[in-house]
Amino acid sequence: MKKLTKKTKLIVLCAVLAAVLIAGFIVYKAVIPQPLNYKIKSIEAAGTTVEIVEETEDSVTIKKTGEGEFKVLMFTDMHLDGKNETSKVTVSHLVENIRKEKPDLVILGGDNVTSGMNRKRAKQLGEIFEKLGVYWAGVLGNHEGDNTWSITRTEMVEIFSSYDHCLMRRGLESATGDCNYSLNILNPDGTLMQTFFFFDTFDMISEGRRAEYGITKNKATDGVRADQVSWYKTKLAETKEKYGDFKSIVVLHIPLMQYTTALDENTPIIEGVNLESPCSSDIDMGLFSAIKEGGSTKAVFCGHDHLNNYRMSYQGILLCYIENSGYGSYTTASKLGYEEKDWLQGYTKLTLHADGTFAILNVRNSEGME
After folding, report:
1. How many distinct structural domains can be found in the chain?
2. Which of 63, 250, 296, 312 has a C-alpha 20 to 30 A away from that of 193?
3. pTM score
4. Cα dist. 173→75, 83, 126, 142, 204 in Å?
């Protein structure tokens, strides 16, 4: 057997070392949990003037106990993936904005805690809200649970909902998904101010479902399904029977197909910017029609598209984007080369009035990555 030369041995040794380093990096990034690089214990409470008055499997009812109008802050696409710099900056702005605004409720629009080995980060997000002492709700996005090393979407909702200040619920088994529930907000006198309906919009449409619905597009985006629409109709009727006529808002991650249709029909933008084509659902199972028919829901809020923060009125319904809140995934800086003063990162503020009407304001972060 021919002996290896010193040069060959050196090449083999270098190859082995390179393989070990690559394997170690993969283990570090995909197997070892990456926590949020933030000092959670140092967070000072923002406080709350809200209390839970009733809970069921697919709904929570809360009431404002203090004076003044009801303030909601909405954050979306934070992509807390454990990357130290971007996750720390995103969480810092989340905490600072909540402490500054002192909202009655915080809503997350999905793609909140992403990437692999995210159980610890999911728990840390829950701990952050416990330290802030603020109630929070929301939905999951398409990137929760899509990593091989990620916890499941169901596990994530279970972790979140285990915290006292989390109002997120998985919902009924009869409605597909992990975030189909309603949130009723009462005025101090017990009348219904506003109801939020939350929906799971999943990720990509499976090959089987594409064939079932005749979708020829290879990578088609999923959305609200028929049994979820049925749940929505039932919940509308139940809520009306209990409280009478009421106003409501829908929150989901992936935009409805009508976001694309509205732009195609040259619907004017009321406020905000459209810097990318809506990556909306490629299937319409009737939620928009049910919204118009029901007459209660006046606005739909979504995330998903990081470069859009506009709203428009389409067939009498406000179609809105939540202001992008994360620094980790693609942004106007990484995609378009925008200077910091033109970045979209921030949050959307809703001011709810006693009669169910509301005001919308998109707020940019005062500072960027510094």
Report:
1. 2
2. 312
3. 0.91
4. 27, 35, 24, 20, 21
